[in-house]
Amino acid sequence: SQQGEEDPQALSIQEGENATMNCSYKTSINNLQWYRQNSGRGLVHLILIRSNEREKHSGRLRVTLDTSKKSSSLLITASRAADTASYFCATQITGTASKLTFGTGTRLQVTL
Amino acid sequence: NAGVTQTPKFQVLKTGQSMTLQCAQDMNHNSMYWYRQDPGMGLRLIYYSASEGTTDKGEVPNGYNVSRLNKREFSLRLESAAPSQTSVYFCASREARLGYNEQFFGPGTRLTVL
Q1: How many other CB atoms are there within 10 angstroms of residue A59's CB atom?
Q2: A87: how many CB neighbours lie within 10 A of its CB?
Q3: Which among B40, B50, B102 is the nearest to A104, CB-wise?
Q4: C-alpha neighbours within 13 Å on the C-beta side of residue A10
Q5: Taking the CB of the first residue and of the last residue of chain B, which one, N or C, has fewer CB atoms within 10 A?
Q6: How many whole angstroms separate alpha carbon A94 and alpha carbon A107?
Q7: How many CB pairs under 8 A join A and B?
């Protein structure tokens, strides 16, 4: 079964709006990462947050992590059409140094 | 640098045929991974190689074999393809040092088994 479940499965917003995606997971983690996948392409790493961190920023991205609720959120501010993609959370589970477990993804559509 | 490269990009097989998916990385990474991606399922780990000379099963290894040929190359073999193996296959690599957790992905191989 998937370690990560993302919500919503699909999101459609207009350019300039903010987009928020959520990820829930089941077991103790070392870190949680977010990846983007453009249609027909491989995944690209966006941001990593460690289990002892609560919030992290990178450009227009803001990630939060609540280990007590086993959940994370990715906020993309002032979205652009180029942000249209699928977004996946991935967890590195405690004791599995090499492996990531991916969620099912959120498909984001940003319209002009 | 090319990053992670995969060949072929597309492949159509008949049930029972065999094939090898090739993956190479030029970033001197220690760890390499094979995933499959099916609609609505996210990515699932098939096999991985934490370092040259080692391979381990992931979440869905049945029907697959792997070879870590050298530090650069990690191949995935389907000995007798089945329609259930129709999927998009991604190879990834990672520098296995403390603090380096990001995985770098190839462009994928789209495989159809008839």
Answers
A1: 9
A2: 23
A3: B40
A4: 3
A5: N
A6: 28
A7: 57
Residue A58 tokens read as 């990178």
pLDDT digits (tens, 9 = 90+) for B5-62: 999 999 999 999 999 999 999 999 999 999 999 987 789 999 999 889 999 999 999 9
| Mutation for testing the B interface, residue in A2, A3, A35, A43 having most B CBs under 10 Å | A43
Cα separation, A49 vs A38, in Å, equals: 22
Which tens digit of pLDDT belongs to each residue from A28-68?
Answer: 999 999 999 999 899 999 999 999 999 999 999 999 999 99
CB contact under 8 A, B45 and A104: no
Q: Which residue of B has its CA nearest to A4?
A: B42
Tell me how far apart the alpha carbons of residues A45 and B101 are, in angstroms, rounded to a whole number.
10
Instruction: Report the candidate in B2, B79, B19 with the shortest Cα–Cα distance to residue B10.
Output: B19
> Which of A41, A48, A98 lies at the smallest CB-CB distance from B107?
A41
Whether the ω angle into residue B8 lies within 30 degrees of 0, i.e. cis, is yes
**First-to-last C-alpha distance (Å) of chain B:** 36
Question: What gap in Å lies between CA A111 and CA B13, rounded to an integer?
Answer: 38
CA angle A21, A35, B65 (to 5 degrees): 130
